[in-house]
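User: Can you fold this complex?
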Amino acid sequence: MSRRLAIGVVVFVLGVGAALLAAERPIEQPLPYSHAVHTKEAACVLCHAGAQSQPNAGIPKFSVCQSCHATPPPRLAAPDKARWENAAKAKEPEAWNRLYEVPNHVYFSHRRHVAVGGIDCAACHGDMATSTTPPTQAAVPISMRRCVSCHEREQVTNDCTACHR
Amino acid sequence: MTRWGMVIDLDRCTGCGACVVACRQENNVPVASEDDYYKGRNLDWIQLARHVDGEYPNTQVRQYPFLCMQCDDPPCIKVCPVGATYRDEEGIVGQIYYRCIGCRYCTSACPYSVKVFNWKKPTWPDGTDRRQNPDVSIRSVGIVEKCTFCHHRRQRAKEVARAEGRELNPSDYVPACAEICPAGAMVFGDLDDKGSDVHRLAEDPRALRMMEELGTKPKVIYLKRVAEAKK
Amino acid sequence: MNGPIATTAPAPIETEHERALFHHIRHTGRGFKILSVVLALIAAWGLTAWIWQLTHGLEVTGLFRPVYWGIYITNFVFFIGVSHAGTLISAILRLSKAEWRRSVTRMAEVITVLVLFFGAGNVIIDMGRPDRAFYVLLHPNFRSPLLWDVCAISLYLTASTIYLFLPLLPDIARLRGKIGGWRERVYRALSFGYDDTPAQRGKVEKAINILAVIVLPIAISVHTVVSWVFAMTIQPMWHSTIFGPYFVAGAIFSGIAAILTFMVVLRKVFKLENYLRPIHFDYLGRLLLVMTLLWFYFTFAEHITTWYGNEGHEMKVLSAKLSGPYSPFFWAMVATCFVIPMSILCRRSTRSIRGVLIASISVNIGMYLERYTIVVPTLVNPRVHLTQALYSPSWVEWSILAACISAFILLYMGFTKLFPIVSVWEVEEGMRHGPRETAERIKTFLPEEEEKKRTCTTETQREGSAETQRDMGEEKRAGAVAEAVAGAGADAEGGNK
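Assistant: Here's the predicted assembly.
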């Protein structure tokens, strides 16, 4: 009896462990950032420059921040301010961490979806106008099923080689 | 309905091999070492196959640019246990690298032996990885790959045409090999388009389809004057 | 009834046959240990070779374009062929009520189940991406003969495992409480509460009979589908309509050869002379002779049509086999599959145990060569010649082949440490009922005596209903039976000594 219990406990612990490992862990971002504040004054493409014209939308480099903010923004707390200053001095400053990863076997073009297809950014990235902290997780899970269901809804090609390169 | 095809005029082909090089560049095909080449481990999607026409002494050596025939009824797609290879709506036989399990049934079933297998992880010596085409994936070890008529170019051409709000022009989409051919021996286009060059040439009396008797309905068509060899 | 029920006494009395047939479970000789270590080392070496291949890709094999398939696919076809040893032969013998089957069936069925793993395993070894093997379940393409194979082989493996297990149940019940140690736990787990009561025994026997019928078409379908992997393509000398039956005949052929080899070895090593009598080898030798002739007929038919048709691409393959680089393999195959077994088996004097052993080993080698000369020459001579080269397997491929054979023998040896290799209950059953049943069956073949004709014409015409006839005969023909059996069945009802 006790042996069965022990086996049960081990299986349970392993299962929970595996589930925890498999679960998406939030990705830390180096600095605080509010999409809500920025999108009031600027369009998405100001920082994500490739969204309409390139396959990759692009994650802004530190220099992009600096092009508006010559000095550390006053809202930053003291330790973050120090990081900003370090970044300003560094040759290769810390960058925003990537949340969306397109696998090697998929060809995804932002231009095709935004400029040609006219899809709203929020369809895949969520409503950033209300986000006040830097996102630490992809707003929607990106899976082939999601791609296919949208392609079906929009009646665009579902041919394998249209996306698989 | 669009049905992409290619006509290769062997009477024009000089056997320069530009198509082979262009294909490697376009499709991230790793260049095989000399040793691998002699072992038959090269991955070229298009090769020059030397063939002697006629009987001695009236012989003529020809170089056949040999690529996937993009059959309308391909023997390879039927046998794939996981459906990793298929014929799309426009007649291109595609290979989904991420699905392929590497059983090599399709390569064994192909009567033209034009599908290739990644025997090892591709290597990119001396910074050649910087010339990789971002539109084409880097294939992993252990899977089958093949000529796709550069279908990423078709995607791009369609995208541009759609952005500009117009129909696809015949000149918008040409595979790398046909684009580079200095002798103009490779003509690419829609076989079902009555006005296209490729349609006209496919009806040419010189036209010849490889192993037509197998019923694979190849869409790569060769043009060859046969009278000379008979003399 | 009289069968020993193992649950009662702590140290149950063993019958004579149990004592003799459990001996090899209890005692492990030095040779056995040494051989196990050697085989385990070879298997480990093969595993290393496979890991080497997994890390380096199939570059480490001798394969190239266009020879995409080599030894692994040959192994696959060969091992699946050998698997027809057990299930098919034992099912045929069970259904035809061949009394001499009783000591042969178990050792044949074990071959089937174990060798299937290596057959299927070789396809996975052959894959470029074995990590994606489960895609055949996730994204099946039912047009592919390879998927038919997946279905047929998994069904066959399931069916033949049950077919091995069911006749094992009464023996497991006997083993309980007699061997002890860790094996006792295995027996308890595997018996699933089976105590070998007459009611349970009846059900098991019925299930075995049903399964024997089911297993036959499955076994035939398996190798037919294996042949279709080749025949469904349009490649020269693969695209042949007779490949299905040709492969099945070859499979039964190599299967019988495999059982015979095992029988000779087991008889010698486990001292089973009393159970595997010369008659067993004589009968199976005759069967092997029939299959030799059938094999020759198919091979001849297959090659003569190609030769006569004289079609260019086919002829290239054929001449590679007959006179080209593959001729040593081809003619060695003809010698080992036909000339040697034929000349040994056709005469009674040479159809001795030793003769049968030589013939069966020769057939095993020959059938491997046959599979090789089917798979490789076609690929070496494709319709389009882009590369001129000959395939020669690399050390990795040879190591994996050696490891497969070693691991198979090792697993077989492991089986003999757990279960009797001769079915104890079936032998005892045979001792008890065999002579009488056979005698009664023979009587049903013969013209009937006048007075009985009127009463039981309908029953005797029914085929395969020996049960009915036994019940009926017990009352009506007691006298005649006793005469026919003449003492052989004297202990028919007194098996429990």
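Residues 2-22 of chain A form the longest helix (21 residues). DSSP finds nine helices and no strands in chain A.
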